[in-house]
């Protein structure tokens, strides 16, 4: 055996390596004896004749064609699907054709439909208009010249009937988009040319401020729709129209809400109003404040809060302010104003000793903390109005005694004036006491009017407040009640 051949080796190390080596299998292939006649390579290789045929198209395409065949049956009248699961599934399965866009009604190349309208007889169009209300039938008659010749002027003349006045207003409201220089007058039921176009401003109640020429302006039997802001200030409904029209169609249709805000003073009260449009409705915030002394008797509180002319509060209030706890909250807040002490004599020394023992220092100009009754915000359950009463330390530069900082009561009201469509709308009618089908806690269950209004202005922040009902017992006594005064 050559030197390079490993061969068997002797020694202690080789003994253990051979002992631990695994044994060879006894099932070895031998050249002689029985031999398997099966060719393993032929057994593993599949036969081409037994292979499945290739599909004509991909499985996803087969699924699409099957789905189109089963679910392509649409409504013959509406052409839509009612099953939302089918709609969502069809988006992923059906191939969308991006070549066809949505129909454009303002397409200049669109063929006019006057010929199709003229194919139907006047009797058939009259039968169609018979199923519509007077406002819709009049809108159908003036939609095109062909329809006007088919239907005639009778549907427009029917709007002049006294019983169809509401339908006439609905018909006229739909025409405001084509009349930017006019304003709908609800007193006489017609459009008037704006005399102060673009420069309309809210004036005091004693100032006659017509925005158009109308013979019914000075008719006290048919007054213009308006709501009370504060004592001596009202908001005509025409300003709500102008603000909402400018928001919907453009600035040439009205005025912006930024130009409607005002600041004024009257009867020792300072007022500030601000407006904002949310979801097409006009919101208003009115903040009123006046300086108040401490330890006022009930008669002085009434003199401070109520006007001697109409016995309404000086601050902004809705038509339901007498029913509930609004005035009781204001009187309770006035009772929390700290009373100044006499610092001279034995009484002053007694107060100083008590403050020293309690570890505090009396300051008449410190921040006032309200109680659990007058601190929460109040919401009128019958109209969209919310109130917040506070006692703040404000600056008074007009005091000759040079007591610059004084305690003042501040009453803030947030209200929803509606969409400006008609004086009979839900919000406008509710705040003026003309509708009793409004539930404010149902309409503003998730978010209040104050939260919506203050969220639009970053500079004005409103601390979190509980919102309670202004009339939890739901008593409607009006002037007959003895708690409001």
TrEMBL record:
UniProt-annotated stretches for the region Disordered: 1-56
Superkingdom, natural source: Eukaryota
Compositional bias (Basic residues): 21-33
Protein name from the UniProt record: Uncharacterized protein
The species this protein was found in: Penicillium atrosanguineum
